[in-house]
Amino acid sequence: MLNPSSYFEGQVQSVGFARHGRRQTVGVIAPGSYHFGIEAAERMTVVSGALRICLDGSAEWQLYAQGSSFEVAAHSGFSVEAMECAAYWCEYL
């Protein structure tokens, strides 16, 4: 079953699904800056483009290019900056 979601006035779009009993989403982020608060731990993989990420509690921004990933702890969040449209895959851990 597919579960579409839209955030930040349509600037971030995702489709949720389950595979092998694990919840996942794939989506696209339009150029801009956004902050996400999360409940469950997750691994984000950049599928296309690049994203600058700053995890909550850190002052350091890191660039993640296509094919790279990062993890976010449960009950936390992260800020993201996209200079151009980028696609991601999110696995809930």
Can you offer a commentary on this structure?
With 93 residues, this protein is mostly beta strands. It has a single domain (3-92), classed as Sandwich (Jelly Rolls), CATH 2.60.120.10. The protein has strands at 3-7, 12-19, 22-29, 32-38, 42-48, 50-55, 62-65, 69-72, 76-82, 86-92. The strands form two sheets. Strands 1-2-3-10-5-8 form a six-stranded antiparallel beta sheet, with no helix packed on it. Strands 4-9-6-7 form a four-stranded antiparallel beta sheet, with no helix packed on it. Strand 6 and strand 7 (62-65) form a beta hairpin. It is globular, with a radius of gyration of 12 Å. The two termini are 19 Å apart. 14% of the residues are buried.
Set down the secondary structure blueprint.
Blueprint: E1 3-7, E2 12-19, E3 22-29, E4 32-38, E5 42-48, E6 50-55, E7 62-65, E8 69-72, E9 76-82, E10 86-92
Antiparallel strand pairs: 1-2, 2-3, 3-10, 4-9, 5-8, 5-10, 6-7, 6-9
